Structure formats: structure tokens, C-alpha cells
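Final report, closing paragraph on structural work. Over the funding period we assembled a curated collection of sequence-structure pairs, and we close with a single example.
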Amino acid sequence: MGSADAPADATGPLDALTDVTGLRVGHARMAGEGALSGTTVVLAPEGGAVAAVDVRGGGPGTRETDALDPRNLVQRVDAIVLTGGSAYGLDAASGVMAWLEERGRGVRVGPDPSQVVPVVPAACLFDLGRGGDWRARPDASTGRAAVEDAAGTEPGAPVAEGNVGAGTGALAGRLKGGVGTASVRLPSGVTVGALAVVNAAGSVLDPRTGVLYGEYGAAEPPAHPAPEVHRAAQRRLTGAQGTEAAPPLNTTLAVVATDADLTRAQAQKLAGTAHDGLARAVRPVHLLTDGDTVFALATGARQLDPRNPIALNELLAAGADALTRAIVKGVRAARTVDGGPGGGNHLSYSDLYRTPVRPSEPPEPPEPPEPRNPPE
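Its predicted structure, as stored:
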């Protein structure tokens, strides 16, 4: 997605966070009937990555985010954890910490190379009970499974999207949410990627048209569902809701990353401006019942132009654009799931809107009704 007066930036080869060289992504989900939750891990390359965070939701659940303040000690991190399970699910980070410690990765705190403390920032989303089992939530074993999944991938591997990892039980307003990812390759050669877990209290869907908000302003005009398709989708959404209203407790989580060499302060700015991409795709955002959190990672493989004092600007714009597209892709990749007893079905956008119509091909207007003969 580019500005109106400039050509759109190119996507990376995979259009995924893993287009940022060195980053790997892994997922794990809870097993068992009634379980709709899981964990996603973004694994940094050996030596870690500069990291930052910007938390704007009013109900966040996080771990080790204070360590990312540029005024504090920690310089680099080895992994970021995004997890379901609300505050209970933050325990997934313990499994990632243990895996990193076994490999001597972390902040060295003693003379022995094995004496490390891995700093693993984490954020959680609310999905408790969405599959019917309130106690089905990630723990340390889920985190370990997710980081092992990440470590088992090749560099530059595709990223699974939709109902995976932390997106297993995610909802996007009344739609099924999930994991999405996207990337931007700038003319300078710098890559910016984003991964989102879409679990928003706000809506991703324009109620007037059935178009996803994040598709407005894209390089290609958005597809408009036929009016009758949109009406049918709205009826199905209304009928699929459970017998009891679900609490509006959500959160959209994201990681925005680049291969540029950023300071911690610059990384924090990247995390902050990426929230603009969230605000384009979800309305409203940053509510008291959201925990919207964006992490930023910088691997440092490419230098910004030292002659350009505002070289960071194009990265900031690209981060917001990539996050918007990652949210759209996550919603489109999600699939309908059974919400278990009392939960109704969590319907996906792809199942509800099967016959989009481009603006250049507007639906034909309905035939006018036959005139009625006046009574004799």
C-alpha cells in the first residue's frame, strides 16, 4: 500500500515477516476437544535483535515489556511470544525461555557462557472458553512447541496464516480472526515485515458494503460483495451468535520487523507508528477492553543512509502499511470454527463472502416491481 502520490512499494518474495532475513515464525495450538487457543513465536537470529514495544490498548496483558524501554539495560532479545489464554497464557513464555537457556541464548549474567537470562517479551489475547473449555489455555509446553516449530523452519520459510498459533481462537469483531503476515520491500533495499494476530473488539468489516476496512486505500480497488451476498452474510452473522453475549474482551497483537540497523529509540518509533496501520483496519481500536500491542524488531543487516536525516520515515510508513495488509490477510485466511456448547459458530469472512464484485463491475440493479392494478 503506497501513498496517493507515489507508486506502491513492492512486497517481499513471500509477503511475510520472514522476508526480514533471520526471522523465523512458529505456531502451536492447544490439543483436545473444546480447545481453541495457541501460541505464536517470532524467533530472532543468533545474537538477537533490537526490540521495542508500544502498548495502546486499555486492557493489556504483557510480560517483560518494561525491559524494552530504551532507558533500560536490555539491548537485544531472542524471541517474541504472542499467545492466547489471556493472562494465564503468558506462561507460554517460560517454555521459550527454557529452550533459549538450553542453547546459551540470552543476557549473559555470569562468567560461564551458559549463565544467561533470556529476555522474552510476550503479550496475550483473550480467547478463554471460545471452544467450550474455559481451562484450555497455553502453558510452558505450548510455548516450547511453538519455538521448536520456529527453529525447525528454514530461513525465509513461508508463514502459516489463519487459524494457527495465537490465532486459533481469535475473533475479529463478529468474524473469525487469525494470524496474517505481510512485507514491504523499499526502493533502498530495506525490508519491513509485519505479523498480526487479529482478535479485535472493534470491527474489521464495513457494515455498509462488506468490504474489509483495511482494503480501502490499497493499490488495487477493493472487491465489493454483491448487495444480496452482503445481506445474507449479515443475517448469518446474527444467527450464529451464541445464546449468551460474549464479553468484549479482545486484543490485536503484532510484530513489525525490519532488516535495517535501528537504535532502540528508532525501533520504538516504528512500533508506535505501526499502530496507524491497525487503526486503518479495525474500527474502533485501543478500547478499554482491548490490549492492542505492537512489538518492533530490527536485525541490523542494512544501514540507513547517513546523509538522509529522515531516512527512517519510509520505514515508518511501510510498517503501518504492512500491518494493515497483515490484518486483512489474517481475516481472509481464517476459517469458520465451532465455538462449542453455547458459543455458536465463529464464521469466517471467506465463508460469508464468496462472490465479490469489483467496483468496475457493479451489480445490476434489481428489476422494478410490476405495477399493481388499482382495485376495481
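The radius of gyration is 22 Å. Confidence is low (pLDDT under 50) at residues 1-7, 358-367. We thank the funder for supporting this effort.
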